[in-house]
Amino acid sequence: MFNGQVTDIFFDLDHTLWDFERNSALTFEKIFLQNGIHVSLPMFLQVYVPINFEYWKLYREEKVTKEELRYQRLKKTFDTLGMSIDRSMIDRLSDDYIRYLSSFNHIIPHTKEVLDYLRPNYRLHIITNGFGEIQHKKLKNAKILHYFEAIINSEMAGVKKPHPRIFELALAKTRVAPENSLMVGDNLEADILGAQAVGFHTLHFNPTQDSNHDFCKIITHLSEIKSIL
């Protein structure tokens, strides 16, 4: 499908290679225990996950700051659950969450298998909206850092996916043309449409099968990449 044309593959990190939901749940379990927060973890996550998704969308759209994202996603979750948690505790939980999140290292099934398959023939890179201070730690602790030549994050670019500038920065740093570049990610708006607007080839990793479209090929397992490239 892309052979003979693609030389560089750019991956999103969270939800695409790094198992964000699993690692996030383990982090909350740890910090709630440490801080004496008594709440059912499944109940908390049921409320938190869509709120976090909502706030990340606002963050991508420059409608909230990083600090507002970190505070409000917890505040709104506890409010929804009817729990009275004061500002200082929410700030502590927010700090602890960032501190411990990258210490958990679960990755999406077939990640290393696919990276081992691709690395001999392609240059591999990361483009992420995640916070710069922890994305490197995630890659290192998950033992996949060595696969990637360039790691571009939104703080470095000054904008977030799907803004074209972050993709243009990635192309400039890796010295590759968009027609020789493939973006692989889980978010249709940020990863797929954002990269396509700059001329990338794209591959949508959609394991939950929650989006059906004709923008590009969709895969539900990372291992499918081996039959495409």
From TrEMBL:
<dbReference type="InterPro" id="IPR041492">
    <property type="entry name" value="HAD_2"/>
</dbReference>
<dbReference type="Pfam" id="PF13419">
    <property type="entry name" value="HAD_2"/>
</dbReference>
<dbReference type="GO" id="GO:0008253">
    <property type="term" value="F:5'-nucleotidase activity"/>
</dbReference>
<dbReference type="InterPro" id="IPR011951">
    <property type="entry name" value="HAD-SF_hydro_IA_YjjG/PynA"/>
</dbReference>
<dbReference type="InterPro" id="IPR036412">
    <property type="entry name" value="HAD-like_sf"/>
</dbReference>
<protein>
    <submittedName>
        <fullName>5'-nucleotidase</fullName>
    </submittedName>
</protein>
<dbReference type="InterPro" id="IPR023214">
    <property type="entry name" value="HAD_sf"/>
</dbReference>
<dbReference type="InterPro" id="IPR006439">
    <property type="entry name" value="HAD-SF_hydro_IA"/>
</dbReference>
<dbReference type="InterPro" id="IPR023198">
    <property type="entry name" value="PGP-like_dom2"/>
</dbReference>
<dbReference type="InterPro" id="IPR052550">
    <property type="entry name" value="Pyrimidine_5'-ntase_YjjG"/>
</dbReference>
